[in-house]
Amino acid sequence: MQSHKLFYSVSFLQFFMSEITGTTLILFLLAKGLSLQSANFLLVVFFVSIFLFEIPTGAIADKYGRKISVILGLCCFLLYSVLFVWTDHIGVLVFAQVFGGLAICLQSGSLESWVVENSDKPMEVLFTTSNSIQYISGFICGLLGAFLATFNYSLPWAASILSIIVCIFLCSFYMDEENVAHRKTSTTRIKTIIGESVRIGFENKSIWIVFMIGLFISFSNSAGNTFQQPRLVGLSEQGIWIMGFIKAGYSLCMTLGSYLVRKLGVRYSDVHILMYACGMIGIWLILAGAFNTFYPVLLTFLIYEIGRGMYPVAKQIFLNKRISNEYRSTLLSLDSAISQLGMCVGLIVTGIISRNFTDLSSDQTPIQISWVMCGGIALIPIILLFHVNRVSGKSNSWKEKETKQNV
């Protein structure tokens, strides 16, 4: 199987296995007897785990190979899923979240690094296509996950477990890797890889600025991601099924966002596209929080999701063009770790704000406050990007600046 086709297939399955359960995750936790604050606590455990494991697991992928890292990650995700659906005990759920975080870390930069190193397709094509495929997967997950959950909240998890097993099979038999023997026999130690990656990341101005942007955007996404289910289902006064159609709708919007990045890339620099994405996220999340009736909130939330679809593609393209293969997985993991820190802080803050929200009939004001606040946070990177772009003395992009320096 060609590298890019395997990448697209695995990307679809990875998104499917997490999003089919994510469609009703918070509702599932509420059904287990947890409050919204307790649900946020579990998510904090998940993202703290990612923060702690990201850089070491990225270094493992750089040292021992991408394939083994991806497969180990899928095995951890399988254990997480089985534990999560099996128990209602908060202690076991916390334990499961640790494995879920480790699973994400082992897979995060590894698959991305593998396809960049083993495919002859341009990065713009690889990442815009894979993100569009993921959002199509999200469309399917939205409808299927909500449909299955109307019968039993555990059924989406059964579908997730099946997709994990299929993904493990594909990676085990079709994921070929170049230079893996060279990596394993290299005298470079994992500690050295981590140290060099951190040094490169913070000495390269364009890279560490994007790290900081990830911190702010992840903080912003904390409330938008966590509170979408109780906010939209509560305002609609419909059953769980409505979330399936909403999920399908915003998956299409995220696909549109990914497509827009490819189109805008023809005319605009990567820094400007990042600005547009952050602006879309910030402005429309503020409006979604300001309104408090179903259809205006739904419309503004869907436009916000277009921005969310733009952002990861723009950042992937920007970062991968500026880092070498030797430290690629570790630097991508460092970026992810910093982003998880922003998510953790956001979840803690919005969890405190929403601590009195316990069921769908609760007052929506805490969620509104959280969304408006997080929308404002998402606008901070625009100021940062504008300042750096102006100081650089270039009217186009950082990419052009670095190209001239290399020449």
Automatic annotation (TrEMBL):
Residue ranges that the Swiss-Prot or TrEMBL entry lists as coiled coil: none
Record's keyword annotation contains Transport: yes
Entry keyword set: Membrane, Transmembrane, Transmembrane helix, Transport
Transmembrane segments: 12-31, 37-56, 68-86, 92-111, 132-151, 157-175, 207-227, 239-261, 273-295, 369-388
Keyword Transmembrane: yes
InterPro entries, per the entry: MFS (IPR011701), MFS_DHA3_Transporter (IPR053160), MFS_dom (IPR020846), MFS_trans_sf (IPR036259), Sugar_transporter_CS (IPR005829)
Membrane topology according to the record: Multi-pass membrane protein
Domain Major facilitator superfamily (MFS) profile: 1-393
Localisation per UniProt entry: Cell membrane
Superkingdom of origin: Bacteria
The protein, known as: MFS family permease
Species whose genome carries this gene: Paenibacillus peoriae
